[in-house]
Amino acid sequence: MTTLREVRVARRTGFCYGVREAIDASWLAAAEGKTTHTLGHLVHNEGVIEALRAGGVRRVEAIDEVAQGGTVVIRAHGVTPAVMETARARGLDVIDGTCSWVTTEQRELARLVDEGYTIVLLGTPGHPEVVGLLGFAPDAILVDEEEDWDRIPRRKRMALICQSTQPPWKFEKLAALMVSRCHELKIVNTVCPVTIRRQQDTTELAANVEMVVVVGGRKSANTKELTRLVGIVGRPVIQIESAAELDDPTAFAGREVIGVTGGTSTPIEDLEDVVRRIWELAGAPGDRERARELAATAIHAVAENAYRSSSLPADQRGAALAARVGSA
Ligand code: SF4
Q1: Pocket test for ligand 1, best of 12, 13, 17, 103 (most atoms within 8 A of CB)
Q2: Does 291 have pLDDT greater than 60?
Q3: Catalytic residue (choose from 21, 105, 129, 272)
Q4: How many CA atoms lie within 13 A of 321 on its CB side?
Q5: What per-residue string of b and e applies to 274-294 under the rule 16 or more CB within 10 Å gives b?
Q6: 192 lines ligand 1 (CB under 6 A)
């Protein structure tokens, strides 16, 4: 028997401002007729990647793949100073989409290097933001999980800084450990406030529903953290990349109120698709038919002002995304 009464969306969802601005910069450049490239994927989301491709924005993995005179958009994660210099030296039209928060991290790191600290960077090895940050402090000691932390040496003057999407609890725990490892400890808290708010909203959502669906890239650190937090609240949780992964109605059996949340690189349209899919799978017959309308209502209940994956008018975005947003 169908029990579903409500599908509720977390208060703040959709792209963070850093991701949205980098994507908008790509649309604008393409709309101006520039041969536009992004250095790596702007976001780990297949729908957005496909929309950009359809809108004429190409992805390259290295600067030397961009032909002379081409435009290259640097993603929100930022790059090393060497990559930026290479792009400029080649005479490329560089659009720096590095998020302002990440730019601040980069500046802080460079300052710590100048001040002579032994720097510990908390971050995920290989993550593009971390790769970029290490370009500003090549000698920084990169640590991730707690098993790594024994590698941190004892030094007189040490500094701690982190990748923007690291969980605050982990940063605080590492700071506490480092207090015992040095005489002077400088702590630069670079956990992104958007990430913190996402986590707070997800915890609040989890406390008020019976189960939660978390939507985001499997490799996304901030998405995984949302899943972990739902578990801490004690609610069953399903983590998916898109609505297409939901095909089993029994996953929602007996639930009356289900929550949906997403990482900072998950477009709000994906959350709407997931809400709709839940209604289609687990709703009463009448609700299944109204799944699209119910999904739109759930999104608008929390995101009227931010109901967008772009700050641009539709005619300046790629055709695919515009069509998608227009049909929502
Ligand atoms: S999560 Fe924060 S730091 Fe990272 S791109 Fe988004 S706004 Fe910028």
Answers
A1: 17
A2: yes
A3: 129
A4: 31
A5: bbbbbbbbbbeeebbeebbeb
A6: yes
pLDDT of residue 45: 75
Average pLDDT over residues 149-157: 96
- Mark whether 129 is an active-site residue: yes
pLDDT tens profile 81-100: 999 999 999 999 999 999 99
How far, in Å, is the centroid of ligand 1 from the Cα of 101? 6
Q: What is the rounded (10 degree) CA torsion for 270, 207, 225, 201?
A: 60
pLDDT tens-digit readout, 162-187:
999 998 999 999 999 999 999 999 99
93-96, strands of its sheet edge to edge: 58-60, 36-39, 71-74, 93-96
C-alpha dihedral over 148, 154, 157, 161, to 10 degrees? Answer: 10
Q: From 3.40.1010.20, 3.90.550.10, 3.40.50.460, 3.20.20.80, which CATH number describes the 101-191 domain? A: 3.40.1010.20
Options 3.40.50.11270, 3.30.540.10, 3.50.50.60, 3.40.50.300; which CATH number does 17-98 get?
3.40.50.11270
pLDDT tens readout for residues 271-290? 999 999 999 999 999 999 99
Q: Ligand 1 atom closest to Cα of 16?
A: 6
Q: Bridge partners of 118?
A: 158
Ligand 1 pocket, 39 CB below 6 A? no
pLDDT average, residue stretch 241-270: 93
**Mean pLDDT across the stretch 145-165?**
95
Measured from the Cα of 222, ligand 1's closest atom is 1
| pTM of this structure | 0.86
Q: What pLDDT digit, counting tens, does each position of 190-233 carry?
A: 999 999 999 999 999 999 999 999 999 887 888 999 999 999 99
The residues facing 39 across adjacent strands are: 60
CATH fold of the domain at 6-15+194-326: Cobalt-precorrin-4 Transmethylase; domain 1 (3.40.1010)
Residue carrying the six token digits 């949205």:
20
- Residue 149 has a CB neighbour count (10 Å cut-off) of 16
